[in-house]
Design goal:
- With 343 residues, this protein is an alpha/beta fold.
- The chain is 36% helix and 14% strand.
- The strands form two sheets. An eight-stranded parallel sheet has the order 4-1-5-10-9-6-7-8, sandwiched between helices. A two-stranded antiparallel sheet has the order 2-3.
- Strand 9, helix 9 and strand 10 form a beta-alpha-beta unit.
- It binds zinc ion.
């Protein structure tokens, strides 16, 4: 299995984030990607290739033009306001406040285009996010071209980013961009299975009214865990998408026995959808020692996960999402990929 990764993805290099009521050291850091890449090379798992630049068009198929313009112009606006360093939003257009007209001030724009204060933005954030999306697109093209599978070593991650907002360390929704590109390249149906510890609220919202892209997510119950405001079991899609969204919220502390039971149900639903391609939003944060998560999957469980995914028998694009136990990230990620490849 080939891995797609660009060192350009490392340029987004935050030092801090806001979490647990304090300015803390950032956890979504370049070392995450470097650990995974190094493990792939050490174990000779497969080639690591640079992505091609797909330009803005595939991003515009998923994200709103004004949101992309905001991301692109953010640093200029931030520095023109006399700021330096990392930006955090602190005011949002919640119930009763207006989203239009758009504010002119960067602080208003940060709130308009975000949904949390935990996601630092800096000078190179958009360039790194674009490189990450290009890795997903290049992996999707490999699979569309006949490869059985490919791994997009995406970082920054994507599954919390919606059509018009960022958050959860995510700016461009890499999995959604890959899914839409596959549809545009001729796939009739795509399934996106999100195994990250956190609900993939961005991906869900992007495809919620569509029946061509089935979205499924196995994650910590949003009553107890981020992102809190989406990811319940009764969210099943709307309009044409009614029945094409499936959430599996699990209790904190869930182990492989509980987690894999949800996976079995999800795989049956994917089989019924008969997708041309499966995209796996591969979060490694269900891991038992993840610093911000509370599931209890072991390193060996990720091997089992990969093997279970292989049984779907589908061309599969793996897109990396979260996972913050940096020292174990490479092992767990390659366990999942090797579990798939060796099944
Ligand atoms: Zn996560």
């Amino acid at each position: 299995m080939k891995t797609i990764f660009s060192t350009g993805q490392l340029a987004h290099n935050p030092t801090h984030e806001i979490s647990d009521g304090a300015l803390q050291p950032a956890v979504e850091i370049p070392a995450r990607a470097e650990m995974v890449r190094d493990r792939i090379l050490q174990t000779a798992f497969g080639a690591v290739l640079e992505p091609d630049d797909f330009g803005m068009a595939p991003l515009q198929r998923v994200h709103d033009a004004d949101y992309l313009a905001f991301l692109e112009s953010f640093w200029t606006r931030w520095t023109n306001a006399g700021r330096s360093g990392e930006a955090f939003p602190f005011v949002w257009p919640v119930r009763g406040l207006r989203k239009d007209p758009a504010p002119d001030h960067i602080d208003g724009l940060l709130g308009r285009y975000s949904f949390d204060a935990g996601t630092p933005m800096g000078e190179h954030t958009f360039a790194a996010a674009r490189a990450s999306a290009n890795s997903a697109l290049t992996a999707a093209r490999l699979v569309a071209g006949g490869e059985a599978s490919a791994f997009a070593l995406c970082r920054p991650p994507g599954h919390h980013a919606a059509a018009d907002y960022y958050g959860g360390y995510c700016f461009l929704n890499n999995a959604a961009i890959a899914a839409q590109w596959l549809r545009d390249a001729g796939a009739e149906r795509v399934a996106v299975l999100d195994v990250d510890y956190h609900h993939g609220n961005g991906t869900q919202s992007i495809f919620y009214e569509r029946d061509d892209v089935l979205f499924l997510s196995i994650h910590a119950d949003p009553r107890e865990e981020y992102p809190y405001f989406l990811g319940h079991a009764d969210e099943t899609g709307t309009g044409a998408g009614d029945g094409f969204n499936a959430n599996f919220p699990l209790e904190l502390g869930a182990d492989w026995r509980i987690w894999s039971a949800a996976l079995d149900v999800a795989l049956k639903r994917i089989e019924a959808h008969r997708p041309d391609t499966l995209i796996v939003s591969l979060g490694l944060d269900p891991y038992q020692n993840d610093p911000i998560s509370k599931f209890r999957l072991t390193g060996e469980d990720f091997t089992r996960m990969g093997a279970a995914l292989a049984r779907a028998g589908l061309p599969t694009v793996f897109v990396m999402e979260g996972g913050y136990a940096v020292d174990a990230l490479g092992v767990n990620c390659v366990n999942a990929l090797a579990g798939f490849a060796n099944a």
